[in-house]
């Protein structure tokens, strides 16, 4: 397993980060516990969760994933061996069950909401600190979550970034949070967080958790350079494009119990005709080189210069083992050249 420094800290995190969002919906508590046992045994010391999970989000399972991590900490006493990341949900109308205090029915990133959310997460997690506390998505309108066209709408900026960052600073000062990070952020947003850290003496973000995989490489347009030059590296999510890059959905297949078979309507991403055609090319390329397509996809993400850690997802221990194996793998120049050929044909592949 390779390890990278987390932002400007002296913490070494495994290049494979354990994603958790299926626990409490697709996976049971016992399955989540078995994944944590295996991950830690195999050197995966970095785990990612969120108050929002399990996924897809619904009132009945809200906070369930954090509870499952909490019962594992209580059972094993191994909290200190893990670098744990969690997230506070951003602005949304569809999650009214998440907060005692809403603003016109919306969850928001104001001071009170952030402080309340963190306390609730700590309770569910049965711990008194979170290593990396992230803003799950921005307060303002951006191109997060597949919005293709940027719409400049300052009237909807909402609570300023500085208010959110000052709330995070309070949590750091209280010892409830060690470091802070952002998620689903733009290049401007990341630079603004870093600017405020320098000019106002606020906590410096250590990471940027955004989608990144063979089909979705927008991170490289602006954020990759930001990560390399500032040290706020990528925590890549959905490295298999929700499992599609394994090839298992090709030709209309809908395997039993797989995410898109169960919740395909909730996740239209990666299911367009263009996506399927591009996935087929990557799958054929992997097989031609004698590689497992999912492992090729994960290794590609692991080995980018701007990647700090790759947040993988697994619903079985076999999938988890296969993903962890890629923590030591590299891709040959011939494989990388073939990947670039496909990418140039379809720069936006989803
Ligand atoms: N910040 C954010 O907004 C955000 C958004 C999404 C995710 N995340 C984080 O990133 C983590 C990973 O995201 P993700 O689950 O979307 O990652 P992903 O790697 O794109 O998809 C993982 C899913 O692919 C399937 N899979 C995994 N290995 C496979 C294999 N070898 N062969 C076939 N199928 C395989 C499994 O689902 P099935 O068995 O159901 O097919 C697994 O749950 C999450 O748990 C969460 O921590 C963050």
3D structure, described in words:
By secondary structure, this protein is of the alpha/beta class. The protein has a single domain (3-242, 255-267, 297-332), classed as TIM Barrel, CATH 3.20.20.100. 37% of the residues lie in helices and 14% in strands. It is built from 11 helices and 10 strands. The protein has helices spanning 29-41, 64-76, 111-125, 161-173, 187-200, 223-230, 259-263, 273-288, 293-302, 317-325, 333-345, and strands at residues 3-5, 12-14, 16-19, 46-48, 83-88, 130-135, 177-183, 207-211, 233-237, 307-312. The strands form 2 sheets. It has an 8-stranded parallel barrel with strand order 3-4-5-6-7-8-9-10, surrounded by 5 helices. A two-stranded antiparallel ribbon has the order 1-2. α3 links the parallel β5 and β6 (130-135). The longest helix is centred in the C-terminal third of the chain and has 16 residues, at 273-288. 47% of the residues are buried. The model has no long low-confidence stretch (mean pLDDT 97). It binds NADP nicotinamide-adenine-dinucleotide phosphate. NADP nicotinamide-adenine-dinucleotide phosphate binds at residues 19-22, 26, 48, 136, 183-184, 209, 237-243, 246, 248, 258-259, 294, 311-315, 319, 322-323. NADP nicotinamide-adenine-dinucleotide phosphate binds next to β10 and α10.
Mean pLDDT: 97
Task: Summarize the helix and strand pattern as letters.
Answer: EEEHEHEHEHEHEHEHHHEHH
Give the low-pLDDT segments: none
CATH class categorisation: Alpha Beta
Can you tell me the CATH superfamily?
Answer: NADP-dependent oxidoreductase domain
**Span between termini:** 30 Å
Judged by helices, strands and strand pairing, the structural class is alpha/beta
Distinct small molecules bound, one entry per kind: NADP nicotinamide-adenine-dinucleotide phosphate
What's the β-strand tally?
Answer: 10
Q: What characteristic shape results from the CA principal axes?
A: globular
> In the CATH classification, which architecture applies?
Alpha-Beta Barrel
How many strands, which pairing sense, and closed or not: the largest β-sheet?
8 strands, parallel, barrel
How much of the sequence lies in strands comes to 5-15%
Counted up, domains total 1
- Strand order in the sheet with the most strands: 3-4-5-6-7-8-9-10
CATH topology: TIM Barrel
């Amino acid at each position: 397993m390779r390890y990278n420094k987390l932002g400007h800290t002296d913490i070494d995190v495994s290049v494979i980060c354990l994603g958790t969002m299926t626990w409490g919906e697709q996976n049971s508590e016992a399955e989540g516990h078995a994944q944590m046992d295996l991950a830690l045994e195999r050197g995966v010391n970095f785990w990612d969760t969120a108050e929002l999970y399990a996924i897809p989000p619904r009132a009945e399972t809200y906070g369930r994933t954090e509870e499952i991590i909490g019962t594992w900490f209580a059972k094993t006493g191994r909290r200190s061996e893990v670098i744990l990341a969690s997230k506070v949900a951003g602005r949304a109308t569809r999650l009214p069950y998440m907060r005692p205090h809403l603003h016109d029915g919306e969850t928001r990133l104001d001071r009170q909401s952030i402080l309340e959310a963190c306390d609730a997460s700590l309770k569910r997690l049965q711990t008194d600190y979170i290593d990396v506390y992230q803003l799950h998505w921005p307060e303002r309108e951006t191109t997060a979550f597949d919005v293709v066209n940027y719409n400049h709408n300052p009237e909807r900026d909402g609570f300023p970034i500085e208010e959110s960052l000052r709330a995070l600073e309070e949590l750091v000062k209280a010892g409830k949070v060690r470091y802070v990070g952002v998620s689903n952020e733009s290049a401007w947003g990341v630079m603004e967080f870093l600017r405020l850290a320098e000019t106002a003496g606020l906590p410096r973000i250590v990471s940027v958790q955004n989608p990144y995989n063979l089909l979705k490489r927008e991170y490289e347009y602006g954020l990759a350079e930001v990560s390399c030059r500032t040290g706020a590296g990528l925590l890549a999510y959905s490295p298999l494009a929700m499992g599609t890059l394994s090839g298992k959905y090709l030709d209309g297949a809908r395997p039993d119990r797989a995410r898109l078979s169960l919740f395909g309507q909730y996740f239209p991403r990666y299911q367009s005709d263009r996506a399927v055609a591009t996935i087929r090319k990557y799958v054929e390329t992997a097989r031609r080189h004698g590689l497992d397509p999912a492992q090729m996809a994960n290794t590609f993400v692991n080995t980018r210069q701007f990647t700090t850690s790759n947040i993988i997802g697994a619903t079985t221990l076999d999938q988890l083992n296969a993903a962890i194996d890629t923590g030591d793998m590299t891709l040959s120049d011939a494989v990388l050249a073939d990947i670039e050929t496909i990418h140039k044909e379809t720069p936006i592949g989803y």
